[in-house]
Amino acid sequence: METPKTALLGRTLNEVQQIVKNLGMPKFAAKQITSWLYDKKVATIDEMTNLSLKHREALKSGYEVGASAPVEEMRSVDGTVKYLFRTPASHFIEAVYIPDEDRATLCVSSQVGCKMNCKFCMTGKQGFTANLTAGQILNQIYSIPERDKLTNIVFMGMGEPFDNLDEVLKVLEILTSEYGYGWSPKRITVSSVGLKKGLERFLNESDCHLAISMHTPVPLQRRDLMPAEKAFSITEIIDILRHYDFSKHRRLSFEYIVFKGVNDSLIYAKEIVKLLRGIECRVNLIRFHAIPNVDLEGVDMEAMVAFRDYLTQHGVFATIRASRGEDIFAACGMLSTAKQQKEKGVTLQ
């Protein structure tokens, strides 16, 4: 049986330099390889034609590019595309392409499943299976047909990015480094429930935008919706954020899914204003996409507008995020769960 080869995709320049050194290749070959990977986006080592045949063969003996195409896709009437990827361990993850006028955003996953078990999230119902490698995260960007149209990346897919921070930070380095994609950090947003240790590392080691999943300003209620509140209190998270400057290049936002009869009254808007006073940020209000066996409902647009207007009138910039892809399992984790259930011979209720 042939020994599996190691993926080059997702390797930083320092890591490629070590590979080159170990194979006895010249030092400059490292930048040639990263250029083929991240600039030219080749599919095979054979395409790296400025490497000598001898060096390509040496590289191929233990390595491969490691890119893999989506195994399934679902296209919405609004242009949104949900891609399903199979990992080498035969798990399934999702990435969602969202075109919008002059923007094209890709929502990527960082884990298979999730430990956070938020009440409103289908991925949380799967439980946690595995962390994705930097290569598996980057592959979601590398292997979709629209990869050259992308203007923005958001880490808002399956998983908690700060629970897999080493690999996420490697991807952010590749996306923003000169040897990699060369993107501005302002094109990338990482979303988190607010794991304290990961939050502080991310803020100190990256310049990318940050989105915190709030969903209610009331700690006891947040604990019911998001069990992570027990360990990572929203008030503690905000105390940490007060020590950072969000007035210039980096943007801070709070995600707030609006649930009917749960967190939709203006009493909650008033509490948000108090909680966020003095912090340069925005609040993104999000329509809830129903998921099976969860007794939560979304609200109508009138309620969303009233909530937004209250926040804006009281000094908190707020937006209503347009719902996209509702006809293609828009809720995160729906497609991968359905695929897993299908392969096990179980029907998703």
Question: What features would you describe in this structure?
Answer:
The chain is α/β, with parallel strands linked by helices and 349 residues long. It has twelve helices and 14 strands. The chain has helices at residues 13-22, 29-38, 53-60, 122-126, 134-142, 165-176, 196-205, 219-225, 234-241, 266-275, 301-313, 334-343; strands spanning 6-7, 63-64, 72-75, 81-86, 92-100, 103-107, 111-113, 128-131, 152-155, 188-192, 209-213, 252-258, 282-287, 317-321. The longest helix has 13 residues, at 301-313. The protein is globular and about 70 Å long.
Short description:
The chain is of the alpha/beta class. It is 32% helix and 19% strand.
